[in-house]
Design brief:
Blueprint lengths: L2 H6 L3 H22 L6 H8 L3 H4 L6 H24 L5 H13 L2 H14 L5 H23 L6 H22 L3 H9 L1 H4 L5 H15 L7
Helix pairs in contact: 2-3, 2-5, 5-6, 5-7, 5-8, 6-9, 6-12, 7-9, 8-9, 9-12
C-alpha cells in the first residue's frame, strides 16, 4: 500500500492495515523501552501519523496496549496448552505455565501494568472485549490443566490466573531499574531480596496447586 493510500485508509482492508501498523509500532516500542515509557505521540511518530489519526482506530494509548495484551494472552494460552498435553502431573503443569509465561517478556510487562494503568482510560467496549478475551483464555487453560492433573477445570483456571497475576507482579521486581540494580550490586544482603522470576513463580504456583484441592469443601 502506498503512503497516500495508507494516509487515506478509506477501504476496509486499508483500515485493517493501519490498525496492524499501529499495533506493530506499539509492540516494537514497548519491547525496546518498556510499556510504561511509550506515549501515544511516540506510537504516532513511529507510524507516521498525527495523534488525532491514531485515536480514530484506538481511542487511547491504553486501548492499543489492551489490544496487544489480548494477542499476548492468546499466544500464551496456545503455547501453554500445547505443552500441557504431555504434562503428567500438577508439578509438570506448573512448570509449563511458569516457563511459557516467562518466555514472553512483553506479556509480563503488559501484565504488570494491567490493573494499574492499561484498564484505565479506556472505553467500555474495549474493557469488555479485553475481559471476555481473558475469561475465555483462562477457561481454555483450565480445561487443558484438568486433563493432565487431578485439578478441576475451575482450579486449573485459577492456577493459570495466578500464574499471570504473579508474573505481572514479579516481572518488574525481577528487572529492577538502574538505581536499584546498582544498590543490589553493591549490597549482597539486599540483592538476596530481588526475586528471580522463573524459580520464584514455580515455587508459588506449586504451593497453590498443592493447596487448591484441600479447599474444595469450603
Amino acid at each position: 500500500m502506498t503512503r497516500s493510500a495508507f494516509l487515506r485508509a478509506r477501504r476496509p482492508e486499508h483500515k485493517q492495515q493501519r490498525r496492524e501498523a499501529i499495533l506493530a509500532a506499539a509492540r516494537e516500542l514497548a519491547r525496546a523501552s518498556g510499556v510504561r515509557n511509550v506515549s501515544l505521540g511516540a506510537v504516532a511518530e513511529a507510524v507516521g501519523l498525527a495523534k488525532s489519526n491514531i485515536v480514530r482506530y484506538f481511542g487511547t494509548r491504553e486501548e492499543i496496549y489492551l489490544e496487544l495484551l489480548i494477542e499476548e494472552w492468546g499466544q500464551w494460552a496456545e503455547a501453554a496448552s500445547d505443552r500441557l498435553r504431555t504434562a503428567g502431573s500438577a508439578e509438570a503443569a506448573v512448570t509449563v505455565l511458569a516457563e511459557t509465561v516467562c518466555d514472553r517478556p512483553l506479556f509480563c510487562d503488559l501484565l504488570s501494568h494491567t490493573s494499574t494503568s492499561l484498564e484505565h482510560n479506556v472505553s467500555v467496549p474495549a474493557a469488555r472485549a479485553f475481559k471476555h478475551a481473558v475469561h475465555d483464555r483462562l477457561a481454555e487453560m483450565g480445561v487443558a490443566i484438568a486433563a493432565v492433573t487431578d485439578l478441576t477445570e475451575r482450579e486449573g483456571g485459577e492456577l493459570a490466573a495466578a500464574a499471570s497475576g504473579l508474573a505481572g507482579m514479579l516481572y518488574p521486581a525481577s528487572n529492577p531499574p538502574p538505581a536499584l540494580a546498582q544498590v543490589y550490586a553493591e549490597d549482597p544482603e539486599l540483592a538476596a531480596s530481588c526475586p528471580v522470576l522463573l524459580p520464584t513463580l514455580v515455587r508459588a504456583l506449586r504451593a497453590l496447586a498443592a493447596g487448591l484441592p484441600t479447599l474444595r469443601d469450603e
